[in-house]
Amino acid sequence: MIICKTPREIEIMREAGRIVALTHQELQKYIEPGITTKELDHIAETFIRKHDAIPSFKGYNGFRGSICTSVNEELVHGVPGDRVLREGDIISIDIGAKYNGYHGDSAWTYPVGAISEEAKKLLEVTEQSLYRGLEEAKPGARLTNISHAIQTYVEAHNFSVVREYVGHGIGQDLHEDPQIPHYGPPNKGPRLKPGMVLCIEPMVNAGTRYVRTLEDNWTVVTVDGKLCAHFEHTIAITEAGYEILTTL
User: Fold this and answer.
1) DSSP calls for the chain
2) Model confidence over 118-132: pLDDT tens digits?
3) Is 201 annotated as a binding residue?
C-alpha cells in the first residue's frame, strides 16, 4: 500500500532530508586519500546525532554502520571498516537520517582525488540519469515513466542499469511501497499522486549489469569487477511536479 503523506509529514521529512544533505556536505570535507571508511562513518554518525536525528541504517536488519560506504566495484551496502581510500577511487556514500519519526535518504558517488576519464563519465551519466528520471515525476504520470527515462539515458551512454536493487517509498519506515525499478517500459505501475514520497536511486555499472553479494552478506559488487555508481534523492510528488527533500 502506498502511503501519501500530509503536508505536516512532508514538512518533517523535509527537515530529515536537509539533515541528510548537510551530512553529505560535511563528509565532502574529508573524502581524500588516506581516510578510512570507518572514519567517515564516525564523522557522519556524530554529525547526524548532533542535529537531533538518528542514523537510519545503524542496526537496520543488523547493519553495523551508520552509512553505507561502497568503493569502486562495490555498488551498494558497503560496510564501513578499515579500507583506506586511495587516489583515483570513487566512493558511493548512502546516508539515511530519522528525524521526529520520519526518514530521509540520499546517496551520492564522489571522486577521491583525480579520477579516470571513464570514472568521470560514469559519475556524470549516473547523476544525470537521476534527473532525467525526476523529469517524469509528476502527478498523474505512471511510475515506470521514471524507470524508462533512466534506463534510456544510461544505455544511450553505453552503461548498464542494475536490476536487482530498486528505489522505494519512504516515510515512517525506511522502505515503503512502491518499489521503483530503474529500467523497463513506460506507462506501467501506479499513477503518481501529490503526497507520495519516493526515493529514486539509479545504480549504474560501467560493464555488464550483473552483481553479486560478498560473504559479509551486505556488500554488493559488480560481477566483472568494473566500476559502478549510485545517486539518490528523496522527493515528494506535489500538485505541480516534485520537490527534492534531500537538499539544503
Assistant:
1) ---PPPHHHHHHHHHHHHHHHHHHHHHHTT-STT-BHHHHHHHHHHHHHHTT-EETTTTGGG---SEEEEETTEEE-PPPSSPBP-TT-EEEEEEEEEETTEEEEEEEEEE-SS--HHHHHHHHHHHHHHHHHHTT--TTSBTHHHHHHHHHHHHHTT-EE-SS--EEE-SSSSSEEEEE-SSS-SS-SPBP-TT-EEEE--EEESS-S-EEE-TTSS-EEETT---EEE-BEEEEE-SSSEEESS--
2) 999 999 999 999 999
3) yes
Query: Known binder of ligand: residue 77?
Result: yes
Structurally, at CATH architecture level, domain 7-244 sits in Alpha-Beta Complex (3.90)
The model's pLDDT over 60-94, given as tens digits with 9 standing for 90+, comes to 999 999 999 999 999 999 999 999 999 999 999 99
Q: Is 216 annotated as a binding residue?
A: no
Q: Is 41 annotated as a binding residue?
A: no
User: Residue 15 annotated as binding?
Assistant: no
